[in-house]
Amino acid sequence: MTQEAEDAARRSYGKLVAILAARSGDVAGAEDALSEAFGSALGDWPEHGVPANAEAWLLTVARRRIVDGVRRRKLDEDASQHFLLLEELAEPADADALPDRRLELLFACAHPGIDRSARAPLMLQTVLGFDAGTIASAFLVSPSAMSQRLVRAKTKIRQAGIGFRVPGRDELAERLDAVLEAIYAVYAEGWTDAEGADPQRRNLAEEAIFLGKLIAALLPQEPECLGLVALMLHAQARRPARRNAAGDYVPIAQQDTTLWDGAMIDEAESLLHAASRIGAPARFQLEAALQSAHNVRRTGEAVHWAAVVDLYDALIALDASPVIQVNRAIALSKVALSKVEGALSGLQALDAIATDARLRDYQPYWAARADLLARSGDAGSAREAYERAIGLERDPAVRRFLQERAAALSA
Amino acid sequence: MEYLLLLHSDPKGWETMNETERAQGMAAYMAFGDALRKADVLRGSNRLRPADTATTVRIREGKTEVQNGPFIETREELGGYYLIDVKDLDAALSWAARCPGAGHGSVEVRPVWGM
Asked: Are B101 and B9 in contact (CB under 8 A)?
């Protein structure tokens, strides 16, 4: 298949799974039927040509597979569904009229009844057609464990009768949060592959943006959807500047802003503005605003650190996670006029959360601590903190960067 | 649960490094070991001398065979190990990913089967 055909197949995949599963509530069954339909296409299309309406063709074949399956099993409980499917088969599918049920599928994947750790992987598989092995690598889980997790989640959807529907007003905000969080988890996993060395991984960041744009298009009145897309685009815009030509890590403050993708930043900004016109900012809009505050450097403006601290305070009011506290401490250290004074106020903020057990193995905490200690002039403690950060780092380029920082201490 | 992280890599990588790169590489391993100790998960670790120092023994039909070299000759050879005690496989994988060996070779994660 050409890249284009592959992309088209991938896009169709989620649409078709959504339509098939929305009817039966059986995601695994829908996927099996669809993969058989794709198999038939591989045999049929080269001979008879690609049908004018490929999606409708695939849908009809997949439905027939499901009907055959039901017929074979001859189970009473499936009889009513059987007749519904027969009715649908009687009317040939028309692609222009194919409903987009992907939103319902996304909500089913991020249903509160589904284990949190399975939500993002489930979306990748059902909406985008990723295989379990690729998903496992991205989330640093063993492939067999990931397969099990996915099977269990799909069984849960079917057996618990998790509905394929968009939640009503009263529960929409909370349920939407779970969907957006899962999409962001996909983005975050794609983001860790800074060089884009792993083509599948780089795709993940782009696929997350695709999912974000999809949900923003389906729910245009929800500001958090726009906020999430703005956040991802702002971060993505800096991707080309995150490593230099030698493959070394370049911290954000030292990035060559001419390498940033201006069009992407503009798109993010206009989404963020559109979101702010709809209503009060929540998590993803605040995070997008933080990215925006860094990306003003593209136009030669300096980062306004006091405003950044305010944004972190607003985020902490929503969720006092240590991750946000660490970032706030770094921002706080940049507000003060003198280097040492700033470092000390940042350290004070870190000390306030130091007893949190989650920070023991959290690399950014130790890297932040090391940097602030170095700036405050305490080389000995800085070296220790750098060692800790180096030992916890996954990315060899970042590890080298931290080692160079630590070595510069004694010089 | 205990897991053994087995570090496989091509020793040529080390041989072609300059002094600074070697020092940096060693320091990265030191820092990784320290992080394991501070997280209180390390149960043991060591380097192994290169595979050409290996001697392999087997007994076939009552006869002892002793052979120079490792059991299997491969480009990537077993160069060291970490024995860690963590909650589950996910935790073991996250430590394996932090191991410098994952960057220049492969880290095999094997659950220990206690006797």
From this structure: yes
Interface confidence, given as ipTM, is 0.82
* CATH code for the domain defined by B2-111: 3.30.70.1060
Rounded Cα distance between A188 and A74, Å, is: 45
The CATH architecture assigned to A318-411 reads Alpha Horseshoe (1.25)
Residue B1 in contact with partner chain A when CB distance is under 8 A = no
- Domain spans, chain A: 3-99, 103-219, 220-303, 318-411
Predicted confidence (pLDDT) per residue in A290-349, tens digit: 999 999 999 999 999 999 999 999 999 998 888 899 999 999 999 977 889 999 999 999
Interface test with A, best of B34, B40, B88, B106 (most A CBs within 10 A): B34
Q: Could you give the maximum distance between any two Cα atoms of chain B, in Å?
A: 51
- Closest chain B residue by Cα to residue A146: B90
pLDDT tier, A5 (very low <50, low <70, confident <90, very high otherwise): low
Q: What do you get for the CA distance between the two ends of chain B, in Å?
A: 13
- N-to-C CA span, chain A: 57
- For A391, other C-beta atoms within 10 Å of its C-beta total 28
Cβ contact, residue pair B89, A403, below 8 Å: no
Please tell me the least confidently modeled range out of A34-48, A225-239, A363-377, B83-97. A34-48
Domain limits, chain B: 2-111
CB contact, 8 Å: B111 with chain A? no
Q: Rounded to a whole number, what is the distance in Å from the CA of A395 to chain B's nearest CA?
A: 8
Say if A206 is an interface residue toward chain B (CB within 8 Å): no
Dihedral of the alpha carbons of A54, A57, A62, A68, in degrees to the nearest 10: -160
- Say if A278 is an interface residue toward chain B (CB within 8 Å): no
